[in-house]
Amino acid sequence: MPVESDEQTATQFPPHVLREYALLADGERGIVIGPRGDCVWMCLPHWHSPAVFNTLLGGSGVYAVAPAWARFVWGGRYEARSLIWRSRWVTTDGVVECREALAFPGDIHTAVVLRRIRALDQTTRMRVDLNVRTGCGVREMTDLVCTGGVWSGRSGPCRLRWSGAPGARPDEQGRLTAFIDVEPGNDHDLVLEISDRELDADPVDADRAWESTRRAWEQAVASADGTLADADCEHAYAVLRGLTSRGGGMVAAATTSLPERAEQGRNYDYRYCWIRDQCYTGQALASAGPSALLDDAVAFVAERVLADGPQLRPAYTVSGDDVPDEENLDLPGYPGAEVRRGNWVRSQFQLDAYGEALLLLAAAARLDRLDRTHWEAAGILVRAITDRWAEPDAGVWELDNRRWAHSRLMCAAGLRRIAEVAPGKRAASWNELADKIVRSATADCVHPSGRWQRAPDDPRLDAALLLPGIRGAVPGDDPRSRATVEAVRRELAEQGYVFRYKPDERDLGEAEGAFLLCGFFMALADHQQGNELAAVRWFERNRTACGPPGLFTEEFDVDQRQLRGNLPQAFVHALMFEAAHRLAEAAPPPR
Question: CA angle at residue 234 from 229 to 239, to 5 degrees?
Fold first, then answer.
């Protein structure tokens, strides 16, 4: 591909700040879409596959729909209880919208991108650019043919078919460009099909695809009522559903290599299923009662436990396979970071995931959602904890191996909660093991001030240590729990946000952004303590740390009010969902 092609694409479709991106998703893949109607990221056929739209990371693949020539300002919104997005542009002459979706639920081989343009007040000329580029953006579209007004072609191993732009022409860079005049009252449909196998004989019918997608989202996302933020809970559930494959695996985020800190090497590939994240999500969903997504989380985690037992990996692909080794890719990257594929997490042992898996199963059991195989998985987890709880592990933040207090205490929490719902005589021995683990953590991880500390050789405070009290490793009114809550409030909070820990002597916010997950932990902790006003303040502050599309990243730059890291971060949406439900209830009695 000519260098000037890359340069022109980069100029025409430059990266946006993360708060301006929306997400379309169908469970099998997602599209990141920007304010110029630019679909800048989509992997095919799976979340972790190579990207066919890749301008987000400096590639040439893009699919854009926006007003031609006219100056405009951008807006947009999601249709209720769905990931159907409506881009909206106010031009100097009028207003135009584009309804955007991936046909839902998705097919594991084929993505169907639906775009319906509507001029609201007067005829508007739209520019449409299509440039499907596989192989990190280097494989151009070939074999392009327009038959009966429908384009077909290939890009590397992928087949494509495009309806709605019969007048498109290949430009000097090899992409298809069309100019379409859209009149008020006459919607204009564009339907793009991309697959890793041969396409069906007939093109997708736009009306049928839109109607089936609308109905499917309506059935997938239930109405929320009586929470602190009903519409936000519905949106969070839609995001989590969009990130969850038909096999039950939920990716941590749709993207890779979006930096947590510019030029600091902290850019990772999150297009995989972390066991911990899946468990956080399942426990959060259980706060609202039974749901299909809760069952998905239980099924995926139980299958991995049954398959791998005490060698349970921290993360898998959506199909349950191993995460590939980390490697750099030959793309320019989002400003401030190199592009990476794969994740080094595959080689880690993360003890807390065993406890989180038990917490997930216990939450599902309280809703009568477990069967015999799930209980078999619970027994395997208990045996794994029995054998491995004293081993050093990488911990919740995936650092060097230590005997982290959080890891051990979360195993104790899982043992206690599963013991409460376990049939037969196993509960007593499981509680005895939990007691033993808590005594161990108390012996070497209680700070002189009375709070929990990170590890025997690390006296620092860590916001993750809020979670053992919230989940029941020790009672919420235990002096160690109370001291930890107050210490986090005093030492790790700034302007209503919470940081994970202080990595060095720099002030909060200099080494990394606030961690939104921890902000919602703090809301739950203060709720547990009966500090309702403080809990609501944490909740409200942290749920505003998003852009107009309402998507959360992992971190938030408090000073610059910018999102940091991969998009959207599933576990943040999950904990927001849980906090909105829990805080609407009376504070729980101390355990």
Answer: 120
Four-CA torsion 62, 31, 253, 104, nearest 10 degrees: -160
Residue that has been written with the tokens 């809760």 in this structure: 294
pLDDT tens-digit profile of 342-384?
998 988 999 999 999 999 999 999 999 999 999 999 999 999 9
DSSP state of 20: G
Whether residue 1 has pLDDT greater than 50: no
Q: Cβ distance 292 to 302 under 8 Å?
A: no
From CA 87, how far away is CA 117, in angstroms rounded? 9
Beta bridge partners of 342: none
pLDDT score recorded for residue 2? 41
**pLDDT band per the 50, 70, 90 thresholds, residue 591:** low
| Strand 176-182 relative to strand 169-170, pairing | antiparallel
All residues at 6 or more sequence positions from 230 whose CB lies less than 8 Å from its CB, including other chains:
223, 224, 580
- How far CA 294 is from CA of 393, 426, 568, in Å, comes to 28, 25, 19
Contact 243, 570 (CB under 8 A): yes
If you average pLDDT over every residue of the chain, what do you get?
A: 95
Q: How far apart are CA 453 and CA 456, in angstroms?
A: 8
Summarize pLDDT for 419-431 with one digit per residue, the tens.
999 987 789 999 9
The first and second tokens of residue 355, run together, are 């406890």
Q: pLDDT at residue 589 above 80?
A: no
Q: How many C-beta atoms lie closer than 10 Å to residue 75's C-beta? A: 14
Which residues touch 201 (CB under 8 Å, ≥6 apart)? Answer: none
Inter-residue contact 135 to 50 (CB < 8 Å): yes
State if pTM tops 0.85. yes
Q: Is the peptide bond before 105 cis (omega within 30 degrees of 0)?
A: yes
Closest C-alpha among 406, 382, 79 to residue 213: 79
